[in-house]
Amino acid sequence: MLFSFLKMFFNGHWGIGSKTFGRGIDMKVLIVNKFLYPRGGAETYALAIGKGLREKGHEVQYFGMEDSRNTEGNSLCSGTSSMDFRSKGLQRFLYPFRIIYSWEARKKIQAVAKSFRPDIVHFNNINYHLTPSVIDGVWGLGIPMVQTVHDPQMVCPNHMLLDLQKGIPCERCIEGSKWNCAWRRCIHNSAVKSILGSIEGSLYKRTRHYSRVDLFLCPSRFMESILLRDRRFIGKTAVLHNAPGLEGGGKKEEKEDDVLYFGRLSKEKDLEGLLAACRLCPEIPFVIAGSGPLEHLMENLPPNVRYVGFQSGEALQGLIARARFSVYLSIWYENCPLSILESQALGTPVLANRIGGIPELIEEGQTGVLVDTFTPESYAEQIRMLYSDRSRLDIMAENCRKKEMDSLESYCDKLVKIYSCVLERRQGE
Q1: 290-303 tens-digit pLDDT
Q2: pLDDT number for residue 421
Q3: pLDDT above 60 for 89
Q4: Which of 400, 356, 349 has the alpha carbon at shortest distance from 374?
Q5: What is the pLDDT of residue 123?
Q6: Which of 163, 154, 197 has the alpha carbon at shortest distance from 333?
Q7: Ramachandran assignment for 365, one of left (phi > 0), alpha (psi -120 to 50 degrees), beta (any other)
Q8: Residues 6+ apart with CB under 8 A from 253
Q9: Which residue has the higher pLDDT, 265 or 158?
Q10: Which of 270, 275, 260, 258 is nearest to 380 (CA)?
Q11: Could you tell me if 215 and 2 are in contact, meaning their C-beta atoms sit under 8 angstroms apart?
Q12: Phi, psi of 296, rounded to the nearest 5 degrees
């Protein structure tokens, strides 16, 4: 089985026969993601691996949704038509059909693949804007396919395994009916959106679309364990933690006094719980960087909290490197958050909730602290304890700097070997 071969590779017993791909042999890779501009974790990942693969001499093209902000594309300049769910035009009435199955995406990706003739297609986030119809388009050409599992969309219609009403993890849809999503209004508390999510989830649970993908690459052991509860994915998964992907590896900077949160300003990140904890710790200065649906909460902050808006690149790296520690208080099943990896790569310990794949990234007491009770009072207690122990923080910061993590280059080396394994298996069938 493919899984056995990959397990041998990750355990250091790797052999792929006479044909290998590396610096001397070019591989052609088509990377597929619905957004092709810097936006979130999946986009950061998809754009970074393309850059890394090109630096190794491989040829990379992209397929996604048309957008003036796109930084990548393909030789046909082809993508699916843009969908703006806030639009009031007549096109919005077609969206319920397009987010379930897109004939346009199927036709266009097939044309791009026929023109580019990739050795392998690497899917990322495809649901709603592209849909698994792109799998059909590639499968019809007999090209091997890999998909990085950025979230539990394949088993949970709302992508998060989270009961938004109660703010607690939910696993009803993994082995049960996808109609739980509609009954509980799991998508933005909207009946219409949740019904569409249930229809989409039920359809792809009963069809062969995902079974046509050769390998599902899971950024955490936790995400792999979730997928393996669905028999469609048994024997078709491998685990490879993400790489921080920092330009130049980041710079070491002198620590200041701030505690930092950077990321999406949303309910699943427990932003409200964090702000309540900030109010319980008036003696500690906090910095918040990011944007999202709860950005309006930044309008009435306590005196010890400074909001700096959305940050990226060197400006964000500087904030992270100078922070005493960062906080990551998600209440949903996180996969492999880049925020934690970036913090540690820049010598900044992390205080985070013990949930999902997060514990795989933090060495308790060495590179950070894990929180077991998800309340403002518990957050405040843990923040105070860590903030007051400067010598412990200095040791943790040094441990973070010494921690072995994949660079973009080493990650892409592993990725190419995985591609090679998938190709050899296909050739041997």
Answers
A1: 999 999 999 999 99
A2: 93
A3: no
A4: 356
A5: 97
A6: 163
A7: left
A8: 318, 321, 322
A9: 265
A10: 275
A11: yes
A12: -65, -20
Read off the amino acid at residue 118.
P
Q: Which residues contact 35 (CB under 8 A, 6 or more apart)?
A: 42, 43, 64, 65, 67, 125, 129
Report the alpha-carbon distance of residue 205 to residue 234 in Å, rounded. 14
β-strand partners of 325? 259
Q: Give CA 124 to chain center in angstroms.
A: 9
Q: Go through 15-43 and write b for each residue having 16 or more CB atoms within 10 A of its CB, e for each that does not.
A: eeeeeebeeeeebbbbbbbbbbeebebbb
Reported pTM: 0.86
The structural domains of the chain, ordered by start, are 2-243+407-428 (3.40.50.2000), 247-402 (3.40.50.2000)
Length of the chain: 429
Q: Alpha helices of 140-288 — where are they, by DSSP H? A: 172-175, 180-184, 191-206, 221-227, 271-280
d(CA 286, CA 396): 19
> Which residues neighbour 190 within 8 Å (Cβ) at sequence distance 6 or greater?
none
